[in-house]
Amino acid sequence: MAEALKNVYDVPFINGLATQLCEAWDGFEEARFLGLIWTDDWEDSPLKTRMRIITRALGRCLPERYSDALEILYRFDQTCKGLPYLIFPDFVEQFGQAPEDWDVSMRALARFTRGSSSEFAVRPFLIRDPERMMQQMRRWAEDDDEHLRRLASEGCRPRLPWGQALVMFKQDPSPIIPVLELLREDDSLYVRKSVANNLNDIVKDHPELVKELAARWFGVHPHTDWIIRHGCRTLIRRDDPQTLALFGYSAEQEGLAAAAALTLSHNEAAIGDQIELAYELRVREGEAVRVRVEYAISFVKSSGRSTDKRFLLSDRTVEGGARLSGKRKHSWADLSTRKHYPGSHRIRLLVNGTPVAEAQLNLLPQAEVRGEQA
Prior knowledge:
The chain is α+β, with helices and mostly antiparallel strands. Helices cover 41% and strands 20% of the residues. The strands form two sheets. It has a five-stranded mixed β-sheet with strand order 2-8-7-4-5, with no helix packed on it. The two termini are 18 Å apart.
């Protein structure tokens, strides 16, 4: 089983952080700091709760004056890289929102995002003063540092995973667009991925806006085309005709697959098992065509109803009469984003969104493992 993400904040990390703080400031009270962290609630606390416990302990043990506390962190933050050091921008979020600290906090967020990410910490500033903060985001969007340009986009995503939702941008995303305009030809894939994810967030509430942007941006620059293609992935999964046409998918609904088959290595499995899917299809004769091959599973929910989720198998242009085939392993283990429930699960093979073959899998409770599974 994979290590729980919260365990990035383990004993070696906390002790190492305490050592760094002691070396950076003679006045640091190591025992007090550790006592504030190792409480009865620590073991059961998830990742973001552990992060906040550490941040608040820092607030109690560093100098009371905010700028003085930052100066101590600045003495060693350049060696601090990766997910655990979200604690530094979180410190800015917790203790740097006073109006008189604005400039100091903006410099701190810019500095800390280079080692970890300030994408979560900027959001309370956006909610408090969206106009001023978006002016800052536009400045970051023109910075030479890719980490700051990425922050300009990632920080204002309306639906950032793990982040506080930006309700005002879900209702009206227009303030975001000038930032994305500045980044739409960015040389950094790190930045382009964020721009695409921002567009995909906007699609959930304002699909027509993203479709208008896609039509206007497409075909101007290869980097922009990549962003649009990934930013419109939800529209593609919805089989939106305008979007499919923009990316060159065939408008044919019937007869695109002259023949198709979908088979499963097992027709019965238990939660936690893995099965193999195999598919074959033959494209109709005639001119070349772009096809998107997916399989969709109707997952049974706790209510007994089913919800579809698609998984990509192939996406390419093929000649008329081409034969496509492949295999894919699929795990039925529970995830943080998806819990499985027993019942009959319909699995369909889709070509450009049209079902062309299907199979059924009976999913059993985890305890009812029947026979050797793949």
